[in-house]
């Protein structure tokens, strides 16, 4: 390809990337993920199902919390180290290890937000939180999974397993908001979105990333070509 | 191979980010415009190939094409790798932002080593490509082991190397096959780029 034709082709990729990041969410407006489209790029907010890293889903089972740890594609994260923190505590409450199916469980003893950190010892680390009410019951639909480096986002938003956000200022209303969902329905919704990482599907993210890279290449080539080379 | 945020001490990450800025400048200051498309395509390959993952010993491993990147780009692989890692962190949460420099240096060291092995012209092409592809994975694994040890994290160097040895073997084979393919269809692309 002639070098003179390369610049506009690659610059067109940048425009494509912008269009891809601005596409509307395929979900209904009631379930629109604000992190889809341009928000996904500009806010750099985490999707609930990271590529390749560990995905952690905390599910209330009576008084217990069952954690399911998997990699992309449903591969069980077996033998991963689980560290559990009580509400407001800096030191670990206790530790556990995921079984060959990537499962672990614990019974939270105090009300508040319990924090779970799962680490496989290979540089993959994932943090998740779950609210426990005054009766010691974990709250349905209030499980939060986030990456370790973006904990500050939990101050403003609470993400559930399906990638939808709720206002964290009203955590006590979470059970009422999810009241119409049965536990199985919530799990089904989470399962349905888990493989697609929330609102944005993996193919769209891939296309976006490739377009951005090609677009950057085009701009870099254009600027570099205008400068006299040594 | 991608280290997430919150694992390595912040001081080490910040130092690595500063070192990465310098490394990117050194690697990219003499880039010729004609080399940029190759860097772009290799960066896109780095970005896309991480989607190919497979289960291994209770964890999940993925390909990286670091050896091939080092052979085709030499030192120019660093900017391409940095861009790919940036967008992987941004779009896929694969690796962290604070640890972006550390990941770039770890994997970039492996890719640059592969480029040096290729330039050495020692031994047959196939064996050289396999060695370059394998060491491009093992060196980052060793560096990760050292960094984990400094932070008191992980299960030890032996565990890390045993996991990455399998990936290194697969990458070595892929690199050798790719080099053989390029030798047949476009041999000029295998000429090392100027330092």
**What's the total helix number of chain A?**
5
Order of neighbouring strands in the sheet with most strands of chain B:
1-2
What's the number of extended β-strand segments of chain B?
Answer: 2
Greatest contact pair? A-B, 52 and 50 residues
Percentage of residues in strands of chain A: 15-25%
Number of strands of chain A: 10
**Overall SS class of chain A:** alpha+beta
* N-to-C order of helices and strands of chain B: HHEEHHHHH
What is the chain-wise order of helices and strands of chain A?
HHEEEEEEEEEEHHH
Q: Give, in spatial order, the strands making up the sheet with the most strands of chain A.
A: 4-3-6-7-8
Query: What percentage of amino acids of chain B are in beta strands?
Result: under 5%
Q: How would a crystallographer describe the biggest sheet of chain A?
A: 5 strands, antiparallel
Unreliable stretches covering 5 or more consecutive residues of chain A: 22-49, 147-199
Shape of chain B: globular
Fraction in helix of chain A: 25-40%
User: Could you state the oligomeric state of the chains shown?
Assistant: heterodimer
Helical proportion of chain B, percent range: 55-70%
What is the arithmetic mean of pLDDT of chain A?
Answer: 66
Q: Can you give the mean pLDDT of chain B?
A: 90
Radius of gyration of chain B: 16 Å
Structural class by secondary-structure content of chain B:
mainly alpha
């Amino acid at each position: 390809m002639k070098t003179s034709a390369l610049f506009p082709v690659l610059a067109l990729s940048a425009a494509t990337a912008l269009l891809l990041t601005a596409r509307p969410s395929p979900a209904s407006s009631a379930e629109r993920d604000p992190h889809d489209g341009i928000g996904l790029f500009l806010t750099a907010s985490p999707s609930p199902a990271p590529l390749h890293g560990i995905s952690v889903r905390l599910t209330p089972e009576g008084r217990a919390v069952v954690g399911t740890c998997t990699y992309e594609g449903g591969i069980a994260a077996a033998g991963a180290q689980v560290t559990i923190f009580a509400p407001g505590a800096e030191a670990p409450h206790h530790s556990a290890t995921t079984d060959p199916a990537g499962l672990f469980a614990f019974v939270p003893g105090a009300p508040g937000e319990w924090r779970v950190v799962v680490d496989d010892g290979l540089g993959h680390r994932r943090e998740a939180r779950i609210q426990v009410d005054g009766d010691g019951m974990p709250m349905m639909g209030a499980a939060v999974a986030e990456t370790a480096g973006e904990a500050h986002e939990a101050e403003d938003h609470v993400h559930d397993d399906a990638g939808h956000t709720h206002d964290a200022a009203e955590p006590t209303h979470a059970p009422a908001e999810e009241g119409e969902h049965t536990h199985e329905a919530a799990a089904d919704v989470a399962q349905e979105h888990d493989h697609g990482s929330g609102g944005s599907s993996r193919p769209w993210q891939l296309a976006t990333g490739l377009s951005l890279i090609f677009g950057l290449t085009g701009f870099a080539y254009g600027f570099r070509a205008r400068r006299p080379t040594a | 191979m991608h280290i997430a945020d919150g694992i390595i001490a912040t001081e080490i990450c910040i130092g690595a980010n500063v070192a990465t800025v310098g490394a990117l400048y050194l690697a990219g200051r003499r880039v010729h415009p004609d080399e940029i498309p190759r860097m772009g395509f290799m960066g896109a390959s780095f970005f896309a190939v991480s989607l190919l993952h497979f289960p291994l010993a209770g964890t999940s491993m993925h390909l990286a094409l670091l050896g091939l990147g080092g052979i085709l780009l030499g030192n120019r692989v660093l900017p391409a790798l940095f861009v790919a890692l940036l967008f992987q962190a941004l779009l896929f949460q694969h690796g962290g932002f604070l640890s972006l420099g550390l990941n770039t240096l770890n994997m970039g060291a492996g890719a640059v080593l592969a480029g040096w092995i290729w330039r050495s012209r020692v031994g047959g092409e196939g064996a050289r490509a396999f060695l370059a592809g394998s060491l491009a994975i093992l060196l980052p694994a060793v560096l990760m082991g050292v960094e984990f040890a400094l932070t008191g994290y992980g299960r030890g160097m032996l565990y890390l190397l045993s996991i990455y040895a399998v990936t290194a073997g697969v990458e070595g084979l892929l690199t050798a096959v790719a080099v053989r393919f390029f030798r047949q269809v476009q041999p000029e692309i295998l000429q090392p780029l100027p330092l």
